Amino acid sequence: MKILHVEAGRHLYGGALQVLYLLRGLAARGHHNLLVCPRGSALAEAAAPVAEVHPLALHGDADVLMIGRLWRLIRATQPELVHLHSRRGADVFGGVVARLAGVPVIHTRRVDNPEPRWRVALKYRLHDRVIAISEGIANVLIAEGLPAEKLRMVRSAVDWQQDAPACNRNAIRAQLGVPNDALLLGVIAQLIPRKGHRFLLAALPELLAAHPNLQVKFFGQGALAQELQRQIDAAGLRECVQLAGFRADLAEILTALDVVVHPALMEGLGVSLLQAASAGVPIIASRVGGIPEAVRDGENGVLVPPGDVGALRDAIHALLADSAQRQRFGANGQALMAREFSIDAMVEGNVAVYQELTT
């Protein structure tokens, strides 16, 4: 099968990483991948061994000229199927082009951001199938009026064995500037408001009183970086909270963490949570979107109401005080990832949807 994939993300995490997993799995099964992605993106380089890469300018929702660029490529390459993996204009303009070319088209929805019913009715009319990466997202789409017969659910995957490397914990901590005896929390998310970093900052003063050796690292990048640094400085937290930026070596870094905290207000599923569970790290997260599918309350972590600083503080305090519970949650998380979030299952789930439209 010849599939044209469109992914607008520039960095190799989240959705773009899922696309790479899928491309590898499809290539191993004998399918021919064509990939449209931004010029100079990390995905373009990583996917080169398993896909015919076509770098294109993808400038987002206002980039109407994307239609012409995609049209010319589809006419030249003649794919049997178009799979749109991201928004940023690709979902709409890619759907228009595939429709004009008479090629079946699939859109993968990775976020649980609500959309007005009129937009759902218009946009998803362009797509033959819509794949939700979690039950949480699927429920949002159904509630917004997407016809159930058009919807499929294929969970995101994690390379759980790769994300559980044998690393020297003390050496990793030394690289991060964290003492070996510190309790280390990590937040792995874009620095944007809906990820909820501010709730953890609000909970920290009381946590530090109970755990004076506590350290926090915010891994990620985004528009909120300067504002978060201002909040950290204003609260006098610079000595224990650092913005650590985007790290390509996240699999190794995870082994140095005691707990991953994810206080998001919205989340489709949370690939970073899958990676943390794969590395055997317990998780405290908000009960929103698809998070309860990745973090099972009482099994591999603790779920708290979104935006509830007190509940977040209490959950972190209890878990930091119970090393045996942290170990149990970590082992359970690895078992959960191996059981329900394998790459093979994700690839086969997508192939099943492809076959609906091409056979």
UniProtKB/TrEMBL annotation:
Gene Ontology molecular function terms on file: glycosyltransferase activity
InterPro entries: Glyco_trans_1, Glyco_trans_4-like_N
Domain Glycosyltransferase subfamily 4-like N-terminal span(s) in chain numbering: 14-159
Gene3D superfamilies xref list: Glycogen Phosphorylase B
Keywords linked to the UniProt accession: Transferase
Xref: Pfam families: Glyco_transf_4, Glycos_transf_1
Domain of life (superkingdom): Bacteria
One GO-annotated biological process of the protein: carbohydrate derivative metabolic process
Glycosyl transferase family domain residues: 169-334
Protein name: Glycosyl transferase
Organism (species): Chromatium okenii
